[in-house]
Design a protein that fits this description.
The chain has about 240 residues and is of the alpha/beta class. About 55% of the residues lie in helices and about 10% in strands. The strands form 2 sheets. A 5-stranded parallel β-sheet has the order 2-1-5-6-7, sandwiched between helices. Strands 3-4 form a two-stranded antiparallel sheet. Bound molecules: ligand PTJ.
Length: about 240
């Protein structure tokens, strides 16, 4: 039991949730390591949404709303931490939700789909086919889902699939606290923010952006600028950590 007045309450609750979901086979054991890496980068960014990340979140909303066939791709960590957030974003932008796993088993697909369904998300189902040019199981996706998408939101991605999706001409929006990851550098837009902070902000922007604002954000989207701003912020914090 984590006391609510613990200074790191939010972080500890998230960690406990990841551990519980790993015990249930929702989160892959490798996903526990990925979460820890995320925690470390979140420390560096100050465990807060920077002004730059907030702009990236608005841009993500604009891209999702401009898409003809947006898809939110969900893995084990995302379902564990943010099933509600995925469902709310789906309602706000009309995206399809598809489960796509690196460590793929039918049992995990079912468990993750159930968590998402319970949170109110409508999850695509059907026969996954090996449609992406990848040698691992993230190649398996739905013909009417990720394969047909023009914009794919990929929280906690692995770099290979991000590159494959870009090569197929898709716009890829990543949420990744590590601005140096291959995913972050390959995506069309990377939100350097923690998943559970990012999703509600994207949803909020979907509900409030005017058509003119959306157009300006899509036109001005430059991933290199967002990555540089995230690295600058981390560097600034490191340089002044003991001041
Ligand atoms: O559920 P599966 O089988 O699809 O497996 C998923 C994992 C997470 C194991 C797989 O996608 C993976 O190996 O991911 P990586 O390559 O470790 O990348 C995860 C990235 O997400 C890292 O750069 C972390 O810094 C970042 N990250 C971790 N937790 C969060 C995060 N970014 C934002 N919010 C988080 N909560």
């Amino acid at each position: 039991m984590i006391p609510e007045d613990h200074p790191r309450y939010r972080s500890l609750v998230a960690r406990e949730r990841i551990a519980a979901c790993a015990r249930h086979g929702v989160v892959a054991l490798e996903g526990v390591a990925a979460h820890g890496r995320g925690e470390a980068f979140d420390y560096l960014i100050g465990e807060t949404t920077t002004e730059s990340a907030a702009r990236a979140e608005q841009t993500a909303a604009a891209l999702l709303l401009a898409a003809a066939h947006p898809v939110i791709s969900v893995n084990g960590n995302t379902a564990a931490l943010a099933a509600d957030g995925v469902a709310a974003l789906q309602r706000a932008c009309g995206a399809a939700v598809e489960v796509n796993l690196f460590h793929r088993t039918e049992s995990r697909i079912e468990k993750i789909s159930a968590i998402l369904g319970k949170a109110g998300a409508r999850v695509l189902d059907g026969e996954a086919e090996r449609l992406l040019p990848l040698s691992h199981d993230r190649a398996l996706c739905l013909r009417n889902g990720i394969y047909a998408a023009d914009v794919v939101l990929v929280p906690l991605e692995d770099g290979d699939r991000c590159a494959a999706l870009r090569d197929m001409g898709k716009t890829v929006i990543a949420i990744d606290l590590n601005p140096l990851s291959r995913t972050a550098r390959t995506a069309s837009l990377t939100i350097v923010d923690e998943l559970t902070r990012a999703l509600p902000r994207i949803t909020g922007a979907c509900e409030t952006l005017t058509p003119g604002e959306r157009e300006r954000l899509v036109f001005g989207c430059d991933n290199t600028v967002f990555l540089r701003e995230a690295l600058d912020e981390m560097t600034r914090r490191l340089c002044h950590a003991l001041d």
